[in-house]
Amino acid sequence: MLIFANYFLQVAAVLHISLYVCPQTVVSSLSQAHDCFGLANHLAGKPLFRLSRCSRDGQAVQLPYARIDVDGDLVLAESADLLLPATGSDIARTLADNQTLLDWLARRPASQTLASLCSSAFLLAEAGQLDGGPATTHWALASQFRQRYPRVRLQVQHLHCQHQQRFTSGGAQAGLDLCLHLISLHAGPWLAEQVAAALVVDRQRGEQTRFQPLLPTPRQDDPALLDLLRWLQRRHASSIDLEMLASRLHCSTRTLLRRFKAATGLTPNDYLQRLRIVAAQSALRQPQQSLEQIALNVGYQDRATFARLFKQLCGETPGAYRRRVLTP
After folding, report:
1. Among 12, 32, 128, 282, which is least packed, fewest CB within 10 Å?
2. Which residues are in the HTH araC/xylS-type domain (predicted)?
């Protein structure tokens, strides 16, 4: 961590961050970065961060809700200490429309710092800039990212990742976590804490895993399987095996596994465990129930197994989850 702080401070007293704007830019992410670094300058009482905006050709970019003026083209970004694009979830269109940026990124040396907000990690990965290292992006894009970039070690559970001079972040508000991290590296943790306090956000927000819905939306083309899922929701605390489920679906266990996977992306056991943990999340909002009682009520005979699966799926312990959701 200190290596990167020294790197930033040696490059310039003022860190020049160039925000890349294109038709797929998310306005909220762009303004969030502007506000975060601008507030850091205000609280520090001096300009520690200089922000510029660049586009593919140096022309203003029309977005659905605003027309964004820029300060130059990618030549401007070459002189910046850090390039930071922010794009949305239409990955195919983003990659197709930003070939000029991809070519530019592919030529960037390891010494130039590159970062991404949310799905912009696809731009860095497409240009080969994330190969061999860890990275993150929005949890909903994890499968697509892994399939397209097997040489990147995706760690989608993290809100942001750092590998040498490459930085990535998860969805939406995780971009703010990354901006605060960059402020900490360049100007110290104290200023990052002050900015977080002014924005009324917590710097210790855990992992992205806890924001991901535990239960997938099932496909709707197998009505009998949908009925089985509804039955499971009512009986999740009971002892249930494959033979029982196959019998209710009037098929073999092999056919059950195939149809279940096709509809949900999960095995029956994985789906059952997620049902139980979702029920536990609801119960944990009731302070009068003990963790042992909740574990029993949702289908686990011992608290240790329950706690292990809860943390595995939610990214935090049952106790931590209860404290967070019950804190006013």
Report:
1. 282
2. 226-324
